[in-house]
Design goal:
The structure holds two protein chains of two kinds. Chain A is about 65% helix and about 0% strand. Chain A is mainly α. In chain A, α4 crosses α5. The longest helix of chain A is centred in the middle third of the chain and has 32 residues. Chain B is an alpha+beta fold. Chain B contains four helices and nine strands. Chain B starts with 6 loop residues before the first helix and ends with a strand. Classes of the chains: A mainly alpha, B alpha+beta. Chains A and B meet through α7 and α8 of A and loops of B.
Chain lengths: ~425, ~180
């Protein structure tokens, strides 16, 4: 990253007319002072950005070979897999890349929840992140429809039918979404159009997300505010180097899926061409949507299930106000900290339930886990905030780092 | 302006500006809304999709106890030649106890022919039960594998999450052994 102070005359010529170098420097360069105690959980933001870029690049290339038509879509995907040079690689990167993007985004979200990153003054930053997550879900769902296999077709049927639960206008809305009286080629073509569009909308909101981030800066593992220059280090080279190391680890995991287990996260039924007259015995969404699918099925009423699923994400928009504690990070909240881990376990249970058929004791467990999910946000979060006595917060980010033994002896002396 | 004598002139001027401002805004707003409508309506079914809206079926090859599935408006339609026992089972139910109360007589034109849209009213899967080897649910009719809805021998919802009975498409008997759906 060129510093704006660079003596290069071309840089100076551009900078005078369009201050793009100083803008980059303040965004991800040495001009962005970041808290000096960020741990590896703070890698997820940049990893999500990189994963999004990988999806966009591989997606643009796949669109050069894919045919969005009911009669040809499935065959065109097989054509990509068998005939197009490196088509198999690009498609496996794209299909597993969706999972990798969700993985880092979910860690990013839970990190924000643990360290209270959604609290004042970062409420809008949190909201922008949730909007990105919703757009990702819509985009991933429509992308999964494009191969036009059995799971594509019936997943699309079930999800679009959710809108039919809306009283009175539900049926006309579903017909409008489909462009017909059932899922068919018109549906596929509009999903393709929107699947191509949404990632660029996401990029736009990511830019707003980063803009909002830089107004008050990153939160940090102590949750306390930066009090001065002694609490920060320049983003570049310190965090660019740390993020690059994290990227290496991320790409190793990514490569494992692409090269050694490319179909594990998908479903075998999607290699059967779509058949509008036969539903597969078990319809399951991709893993990243399973917890929400479990909440949908936990309510034994069509409209109620749809409302609960929407509310599961809607409630996340409210947590800046549902969390009544004045302390941001759960690190210093002895009671809330435990509830956080129970919530994480609860979401994993919901994911496991979502992957199983809705029968027998799976139904009961799903209902208990759904109840607990809402209980956490609507009851536990406000009440624990009121009654809990948080532990003593460190005086500053700097002193917390030095107390942990992170500093050398001379560093400690210097701090004292 | 300061030299004008009439205050009324001032007031008129202001309200006239307000009116022009609101009228211009409303004109622009309504115009934009009208311009957006074609962009929304283009997603509704196109003329060729609407043109495929009826299907004729010959019933004569279907033996008693057999079912066939035909396609109408890209949806499966179940046509079942019911046995006397199935008709009896469908009619011995107390209609008031049903989730979606409908007598079997309301759902058929000829007792032995049950004709209905084979799309689960929950989330749109195709229920099993058209073949004798498939599960028929607890009420001897159809069973939806997606979320476990059970339909009886009249296609009525009896158990599970679906809110309504399997829909009856509009159809008419052209002769005793052929129908036109749609």
């Amino acid at each position: 990253m060129s510093s704006p102070a660079s003596g290069n005359p071309i840089v100076q010529w551009i900078e005078y007319r369009l201050p793009i170098f100083s803008w980059l420097d303040h965004s991800v360069g040495s001009g962005y002072p970041a808290p000096k105690n960020l741990n590896y959980l703070w890698n997820m933001g940049s990893l999500a950005g990189i994963a999004l870029m990988i999806q966009i690049v591989t997606g643009i290339v796949l669109a050069m070979h894919y045919v969005p038509h009911g009669d040809m879509a499935f065959d065109s995907v097989e054509h990509i897999m068998r005939n197009v040079n490196y088509g198999w690689l690009i498609r496996y990167i794209h299909s597993n890349g969706a999972s990798m993007l969700f993985l880092v985004v979910y860690i990013h979200v839970f990190r924000g929840m643990y360290y209270g990153s959604y609290k004042y003054p970062r409420e809008l930053l949190w909201w922008m992140g949730l909007v990105i997550m919703l757009l990702m879900m819509a985009s991933a769902f429509m992308g999964y429809v494009l191969p036009w296999g059995q799971m594509s077709f019936w997943g699309a049927t079930v999800i679009t039918n959710l809108f039919s639960a809306i009283p009175l206008i539900g049926e006309p809305i579903v017909t409008w979404l489909w462009g017909g009286f059932a899922i068919d080629s018109p549906t596929l073509q509009r999903f393709f159009s929107l699947h191509y569009l949404l990632p660029f909308v996401i990029v736009g909101i990511v830019i707003i997300h980063i803009w909002a981030l830089h107004i008050h800066g990153s939160n940090n593992p102590t949750g306390i505010d930066v009090k001065g220059p002694q609490d920060t280090i320049p983003f570049h080279p310190y965090y660019t180097a740390k993020d690059l190391f994290g990227l290496g680890v991320f790409l190793i995991i990514f490569a494992y899926w692409v090269f050694y287990n490319p179909n594990y996260l998908g479903h075998a039924d999607n290699y059967i061409p779509a058949n509008p007259l036969q539903t597969p015995p078990h319809i399951v969404p991709e893993w990243y949507l399973l917890p929400f699918y479990a909440i949908l099925r936990a309510i034994p009423d069509k409209l109620g299930g749809v409302i609960a699923m929407g509310a599961a994400i809607g409630v996340l928009f409210l947590i800046p106000w549902l969390d009544t504690s004045r302390v941001r990070a759960a690190t210093f909240r002895p009671i809330y900290k435990q509830f956080f881990w129970i919530l994480l376990a609860d979401v994993i249970v919901l994911g496991w339930i979502g992957a199983n058929p809705a029968e027998g004791y799976y139904i009961l467990i799903g209902q208990i886990a759904t109840t607990y999910y809402f209980l956490h946000f609507l009851v536990i979060m406000p009440f624990v905030g009121w009654f809990e006595s948080p532990w003593q917060l460190p005086d500053s980010i700097s002193s917390s780092v030095l107390e942990k033994g992170g500093g050398s002896a001379s560093g400690k002396e210097a701090a004292q | 302006m300061s030299t004008t004598t009439s205050d009324g002139g001032h007031g008129d001027d202001a309200s006239r500006r307000d009116f022009l401002y609101i009228a211009t805004g409303a004109f622009g707003g309504i115009g934009t809304a009208l311009a957006v409508w074609p962009l929304i309506d283009q997603m509704n079914p196109s003329s060729d999709v609407l043109a495929l809206a009826s299907t004729e079926v010959d019933l004569s090859p279907i033996e008693e106890g057999q079912s066939i599935t035909v396609v109408w408006r890209s949806k499966p339609v179940f046509i079942r030649h019911r046995t006397a026992a199935e008709i009896e089972a469908a009619r011995s139910v107390n209609v008031q106890e049903l989730r979606h109360p409908q007598a079997d007589e309301e759902r058929v034109q000829q007792n032995k022919w049950l004709i209905m849209v084979g799309v689960c009213t929950h989330l749109g899967c195709v229920p099993l039960g058209q073949k004798s080897t498939e599960p028929h649910g607890e009420f001897g009719g159809w069973f939806c594998p997606c979320h476990g809805s059970h339909y009886d021998t009249s296609g009525r919802i009896r158990k599970g999450p679906a809110p309504e009975n399997l829909a009856i498409p509009p159809y008419e008997f052209l002769t005793d052994t052929s129908i036109k759906i749609g």
